[in-house]
Design brief:
The complex is a heterodimer of chains A (83) and B (468).
Chain A (H helix, E strand, L loop, with lengths): L8 H17 L4 H24 L3 E5 L5 E3 L14
Antiparallel strand pairs in A: 1-2
Chain B lengths: L10 H4 L17 H15 L3 E12 L5 E6 L4 E6 L1 H4 L11 E11 L4 E11 L2 H18 L16 E6 L4 H13 L4 E6 L7 H13 L4 E8 L13 H9 L4 E5 L7 H5 L2 E3 L2 H45 L5 H25 L3 H17 L2 H43 L3 H4 L5 E4 L17 E5 L4 E5 L6
Parallel strand pairs in B: 3-5, 6-7, 6-8, 8-9, 9-10
Antiparallel strand pairs in B: 1-2, 1-4, 2-3, 4-5, 11-12, 12-13
Classes of the chains: A mainly alpha (83), B alpha/beta (468).
Chain lengths: 83, 468
């Protein structure tokens, strides 16, 4: 779900930081504050969706530079340290 | 038979040892010390400085700092000593079994009548040239600025894909996968397999890096190999690899050998990890730090908006307490309604608050790290859900209080409303959108729509004539 108003992860963080600073300075009208807050929530949701959207997967680059699924032997059993 | 040599010894050969006269034979008798001194003179004068190659055995460093040992090969051995002043300059530790090339002078140790070589310099055989090559390349690349701190790139906070360049069969790969599976479970890994030792391995590792940097989404590359001798790690000291690493489009983390091993690849890499698993840990740590950072920002975001609401609340409360400002109160009532709408909106947003998600994620991750998650997860979840519930309830309570206060304020203001004036036959004229009250006829022109409020009901009207 791409949000056209958010360029990328780094941009999202930078904007989020700016918003928090503005809110903390505290001279804003209530409506403006709420508007910024809403945007902040949207940005942080974006960051977390980025974290969660990565696919648990192992691939291998073959001789021709193409991606192939890695041999199953590399998908180490993870029951030793994961639920 | 008379022709056999032993039957007919050569008389002239014996002649010199036979006494020349019937008198006492001339004998030069040396003391043992004189003999040894003569031998030493002979040895020291005819063998000035020699280079000798052999294997060290029985090496012992005395508390004087001098080192005594034996140099040997398959057939022979010679005693050797290296004085403290020379030992100090050795760049390696001379150990039994090590093959070395030594430079020194042969001398005699008079008290024992033993000859020995006094070594002034020594280098490991074979390794010497590799070491030299390493130092030369390091110097050359450093001069070109390839190791400059300014060239080092920061790791991405959240790599879309993590590239791994190493051997498929090595322990390094398994170590990396294990760390990432545990601490970054949904990481997407891309492997570019390569030989990591032997002739031409440097070129192969370089090729594997070139292939993987072209893969879309690979935002960081780990170049790794498990521990080994200097020869085993040699691929990572080759110039061809250093050049490709320096030109790579994405940041590279090197994790080669053990903590004490430094290779040229380590110097060129954007970040050097002491081991392959440490390289994976660096990727994980960067991600965790970043999400910790986002978590803290979100907490500040929440705190700031709560603070802002509290300020509004306080101000309204102060106004509430001021008697006799009916007109103001009317306006406050309008604003109060507006605020309560915003508060409702806020409550709705709060239900999906990002900060809670961050906290939940962070807590869960920490718990997973700290405990055996299989047994603890259910408990952790219950705890988180109840904490979540508490937070949500707190926010709701707060907003309810706020709303209640605005509501009662609005109700009280109702009593003082200008509507009472309308009951006496006055009316209020608004602009078409009912956002502005018309107080001056000059602001109207023919064709404008207006809206008029009476005591009971309202109607729309159109201006037909300009004011006189």
């Amino acid at each position: 779900m791409a949000d056209p108003t958010i360029k990328d992860f780094e941009a999202a963080i930078a904007e989020l930081e700016t918003i928090v600073k503005k809110l903390e300075e505290g001279d804003l009208a209530l409506e403006k504050s709420l508007e910024l807050y809403e945007r902040g929530v949207q940005l942080s949701r974006f960051c977390h969706s980025r974290l969660e959207e990565a696919e648990r997967r192992i691939e291998i680059v073959n001789e021709r530079g193409e991606l192939k699924p890695a041999p199953a032997s590399l998908n180490l059993p993870d029951d030793e340290d994961e639920p | 038979m008379s022709t056999l040599p032993f039957d007919a010894p050569d008389p002239p050969k014996l002649a010199p040892v036979k006494p020349k006269s019937e008198g006492v034979p001339t004998r030069t008798i040396l003391t043992v010390g004189e003999l040894n001194a003569t031998i030493r003179d002979l040895l020291e004068n005819s063998l000035q400085t020699v280079w000798v190659e052999g294997e060290i055995s029985n090496a012992r460093v005395w508390n004087t700092g001098h080192m005594y040992f034996t140099l040997k090969d398959s057939a022979s051995q010679i005693k050797a000593v290296m004085f403290r002043s020379a030992v100090r300059y050795l760049k390696f530790k001379p150990e039994d079994g090590l093959k070395v090339v030594a430079r020194g002078k042969v001398s005699v140790y008079d008290p024992k009548g033993e000859y020995q070589i006094i070594c002034e310099h020594m280098e490991p055989k074979g390794l010497g040239s590799l070491q030299q090559a390493f130092e030369q390349l390091k110097k050359k690349l450093a001069a070109e600025g390839l190791f400059d701190p300014a060239r080092k790139r920061a790791l991405p906070a959240l790599p879309r894909r993590i590239g791994i360049v190493t051997s498929l069969d090595g322990a390094a790969l398994r170590d990396i996968i294990r760390v990432l599976r545990r601490r970054y479970p949904n990481a997407h890994l891309v492997l570019s397999p390569t030989r990591v030792q032997g002739e031409g391995a440097g070129r192969e590792v370089a090729h594997a890096i070139r292939k993987i940097e072209r893969i879309e989404g690979v935002d960081v590359v780990i170049v790794a190999r498990g521990g080994g001798s200097l020869e085993d790690l040699w691929a990572f000291n080759e110039e061809v690899l250093a050049r490709v690493m320096a030109a790579c489009k994405v940041p590279i983390i090197s994790g080669v050998g053990h903590e004490t091993d430094f290779t040229i690849a380590d110097f060129v890499a954007d970040l050097r990890a002491p081991t392959p698993s440490a390289a994976a840990e660096l990727v994980v740590r960067r991600k965790d730090e970043f999400f910790g950072h986002i978590g803290r920002i979100c907490e500040r975001l929440d705190a700031a908006i709560h603070h802002r609401l509290r300020r509004t609340e306080t101000r309204l409360h102060a106004l509430e307490a001021r008697p006799g400002y009916a007109g103001y109160r009317g306006r406050i009532a309008v604003r109060g309604r507006h605020i309560s709408e915003l508060a409702a909106l806020l409550r709705q947003r709060m239900n999906h608050s990002a900060a809670r998600r961050v906290r939940r994620h962070e807590q869960l991750r920490r718990s997973l790290d700290a405990f055996d998650p299989r047994h603890r997860l259910a408990a952790v979840r219950t705890r988180l859900v109840s904490r979540d519930g508490q937070l949500q309830a707190a926010v709701r309570r707060r907003i309810a209080v706020l709303q209640h206060r605005f509501g009662s304020l609005a109700a009280r203001v109702e009593g003082l409303s200008p509507l009472a004036v309308l009951g006496r036959g006055y009316s209020v004229t608004w602009d078409a959108s009912r956002t502005r009250i018309i107080r001056d006829a000059a602001t109207l022109k023919p064709g404008d729509d207006v809206s008029v409020t009476l005591e009971r009901g309202m109607f729309e009207a159109k201006v037909t004539r300009s004011p006189a």
